[in-house]
Amino acid sequence: MPAQPLSVGFDLDMTLIDTVPGFGAVLEALGTELAVDFPVAEMTGRLGPPLDLLLGPHLAAEAIPPAVDRFRELYPDHAITTVPLLPGATEALGAVRRHGGRVVVVTGKYTPNARRHLDHLGLDHDVLAGEVWGVGKGDVLAREGCSIYVGDHVHDVEGALAAGATSVSVLTGGCTREQLEQAGTHVVLDSLDDFPDWLAGHLLEQRVAALEADLRERGSVMVAYSGGADSAFLLAAAVRALGADRVVAATGYSHSLPQAERDPARDFAQWLGVRVLTPETREMEREGYRANAGDRCFFCKAELLDVLMPLAAEHGLAHVATGTNADDVVAGFRPGIRAAAERGAITPLADAGLTKADVRAASRGWDLPTWDKPQAACLSSRIAYGIEVSPHRLARVERAEAGVRRVAAALGLAVRDLRVRDLGERASLELDAALLPLAPDLETSLLAEVRAAGFDEAGVDRRGFRSGSLNDRL
């Protein structure tokens, strides 16, 4: 099953904003009007409970409702502009956004005043729910699908637990670590400064666990294995979940797979103890592939899956899995994903919500040598759309890239990402942007290798390496 979208709830007072100065100013103004000497320092030291509970010890019961109304009327003039963000608040909300999540603010504060704070401070959010407290927050969090709730008070912990969400507590409010832990919080952070790193680790842990659970349920699997970071991680995860005897790595051999990728891919799979199958694929025989229109990848992936599906059945394997990750699914134009889905391939990484960054982080944690391997798309991706794909063009690109890497290494240039784009009889050389501009002599030497591979003309793309740059022409 695909991973549920991320939604994170945040309390407002003393979690995202420091309400103490504004709250104190309103209490003083209210006290002056009512001729009541409120203990402001004491009352602002335990913010969190609803206002009527805070006022209760200091006013007669019948005086509390009108005092609450008046407090709310005074609030905008005394408490909005004086209330600052707490450290890390903006970065915490930004971290949720980076992970594709929604931000839900759930607070006991009077809703109009809560909105004034959010608007004044420019806090990015999707939903605001005010005037809810304690376990009542749980209903809102559950309704909005929040899997995490961040607060500063023991009653925020109650709300999170009532919703079945992970309770994250920060020590910027009036509750101590011990009080929060006794209330049952799952995590205590000193402040929201610590939240982005915690969130990244938490999501990675959950996503990897979801991946392994999914794979265990599959029973057995053939991994469509290119040797890249994604398929290598999927292969390793499958071995962990199922055991090497119920996993097979299948690499389609054709003109579009660089020779330099083949031995390292096989070595890695064998290091995991996995059988490696290398069936030949004949995408070059598919007219749509050779024509190299925008849907070329559809025909390539269709050929691969049309070969692997019966092969998996022959070996008694229940599923064929691709290394499609969660970023790929939302990346826009990906006809290959559609071809694989139409043929019944599964996408465990994407279903678990694992992004490319997650794959690299988890691979590093597992000490996989592929954790920082540069992206290595098939050779046909180097040929501009509309130019027919042929074995000659694929071999020419492969020779050019190998020559550039060889010369760069000999001249002491550390190249990570490199593409030679076939634009017809002219080639465009893309290198890591940080290496540009090249010294004239160095550029001349590298372009000479490109021309020696069979291109009439060659130039360096001044924008540097850009994954999928030829898609810009679609």
TrEMBL record:
It comes from the Bacteria. This is Haloacid dehalogenase-like hydrolase.
